[in-house]
DNA sequence: TTTATTTTTTAGACCGATCTAAAAATTGAC
DNA sequence: GTCAATTTTTAGATCGGTCTAAAAAATAAA
């Protein structure tokens, strides 16, 4: 059984390692956990003895198969809860992350399966991220960053990379949502900002920063 | 902000003090928290400095107005979550307590208000216990213990006092539920067991122990 | 390839929640 | 009212998660 804190470390390791494909360095983990490298070293030893990661001094950590499954279960819970909050309780998509950070630690396999049933087995959460299934299988939809798309090509918004409340609120404000159709009308050389149309109608400018945080498909 | 543990202590104090009316002794609290008296003394000091209880050495603790409100909020959350689990996610009434013990600690006023809205502002939880409102007001329905009722009188099951899974499963098995109409057909002098009819049909024997854990109204 | 810089680990401490063992206060018996 | 039994508190230790400061290893620079 993992503690609240251990679960958070494991989740961070999973994300920083791109789903377990790369090693994660101590300092990177320290930064993402808002803690100090010394604390990370301690925790990493513990997670290692629990078989969640393999840890070699000075070489960073690698998540194990067991650890990956564990991480995916936490992510599954997080995303199912986010979906519940938006879909059932009428939260806005920028309000759910913090609450889901708490709810993801509730221990009850029955609860999460019943929640999944109730929600109708959603494939993605309100930010467009895929929800791992019961077995930990995750279906990644191939998508690209908006800023890399060609001019005049119709693309559909699939997910946000950075899900910070302020970014999400901004998107809502200008009318961008998951499923919206965008077209790049113009690229501004100077600052990398884009002029786009939303659903063929509204025409707005978005910054390079925003464009780099929108994932789309053609 | 109270920790998980502090919240559990406060809830126990609230219950053991009958809603804040009596003082609670150290040993009683230790027993209900499955811990040692020494640990209770430490925690009680902390809750006292936080203004949740007043503590006087060797005389037990009394919950303060602030502490009572805090306790009622935790109870509100617990009971709303139990209602959600049964009403929305199709849990059986004997499966919800443990999960609600976890969910009651989620910190989000918005969540609990939205949950309350979604559930349609239920007045009681699946075990018949009243749900405190947003302001901490709790409407106790005057009810009596089944074993004290007169023979032949029709009574309605309102709540269970002991909500242990085994008791609840037993009740389900014999067909007793919140809202059922019971009539005491006979009292057995020897062991205090009762012969009752359920909804005027089924006739069963229940033990004194069971009869003392069913709350009814006439 | 030796030195300087960065990264990581170790050592030792603190805090919160718990424990055991022993001391102190209260209660009950006579 | 004194002594024994019970209850409660204190003292000191442990454990998990964190920290700072210093040591050690790895990396980059000269």
UniProtKB/TrEMBL annotation, chains A, B:
PROSITE patterns: HTH_DTXR. SUPFAM superfamilies: C-terminal domain of transcriptional repressors, Iron-dependent repressor protein, dimerization domain, Winged helix' DNA-binding domain. Residues 1-64 form the HTH dtxR-type domain. It holds the Pfam family Fe_dep_repr_C. The keyword Transmembrane does not apply. Keywords: Activator, Cytoplasm, DNA-binding, Iron, Manganese, Repressor, Transcription, Transcription regulation. GO terms for cellular component: cytoplasm. This is Transcriptional regulator MntR. It comes from Pseudochryseolinea flava.
